[in-house]
Amino acid sequence: MLQHRTVQDLMTHDVVRAHPDTSFKAVVALLTNNDVTAVPVVDGLNRPIGVVSEADLLRHEAALPDPGGHAPAPPTAPHDRGRSEADTARGLMSAPVVTARPQWSIVEAARAMEQHKVKRLPVVDETGQLTGIISRSDLLRVFLRHDQAIRDEIDHDVLRGALQTAQDAVQVTVTDGVVTLRGRVATSSLVPLAVQLCRAVDGVVTVHQELGFDVYDSEAGAAEPPSGRRNGPPSWSERRSALLD
């Protein structure tokens, strides 16, 4: 089983936070003094109940009358009007809050951000208490990993370890996170499996392959014998499940 960095590894542990009664100006000070673009809002039990971002504060600013009278205030819905008139974090924050768990993979966190259209996720433990925060930029740090480290992991953990390829049967090059595999593997079903496992390595942007194979076998595996017992090695799907589980 391949090991990957989790939210726990990438998140910011020392989280700047606000409380429901934190004033507008105090929220601005928190963002400015700590060089962050948003802060989670927590209740008395340190559980996140919302997030106040620069966008929330600018929404408040945009609703104010234009001193020069050049730009009329845009029409706002009752809910947005209430937020634009708020003077504490409780009224300014976006809620409900979308959270992550420390054991999540980078993929899980990225999918949650994309699905909910947010730029950061407060991280909570099993009791719901805030333990960290992870942002888009944190997730992207994985792509700063050195090419040599990526190559070494693919060579040792994927090719030699998981796929058990022969020594020097497959050559690996990595340039700016782009992996190229050249050589031969034992069976045709190992080609897509090698690509998939390499793509799952932290820091890999994409994978190109120029692989040949010695024996063609179905990616779905051989049919089950009448007795219900499989003869020979596990099928492609079984090996994939075991390696990615």
Describe this protein's structure:
The chain is built from ten helices and seven strands. With 245 residues, the protein is an alpha+beta fold. Strand 5 and strand 6 form a beta hairpin.
In short:
The chain is of the alpha+beta class and 245 residues long. 35% of the residues lie in helices and 20% in strands. It starts with 6 loop residues before the first helix and ends with a helix.
Number of strands: 7
How much of the residues is beta strand, in percent? 15-25%
**Percent range for helical residues?**
25-40%
Low-confidence stretches: 220-233
H/E element order: HHEEHHHHEEHHEEHEH
Topology at a glance:
Elements: H1 7-10, H2 24-34, E1 38-42, E2 48-53, H3 54-62, H4 78-84, H5 89-92, H6 106-116, E3 120-124, E4 130-135, H7 136-140, H8 147-162, E5 170-175, E6 178-187, H9 190-199, E7 206-215, H10 236-244
Parallel strand pairs: 6-7
Antiparallel strand pairs: 1-2, 3-4, 5-6
Short key terms for the protein model shown above:
single chain, 245 residues, alpha+beta, CBS-domain, Histidine-containing Protein, Chain: A, three-stranded mixed sheet, two-stranded antiparallel sheet, 10 helices, 35% helix
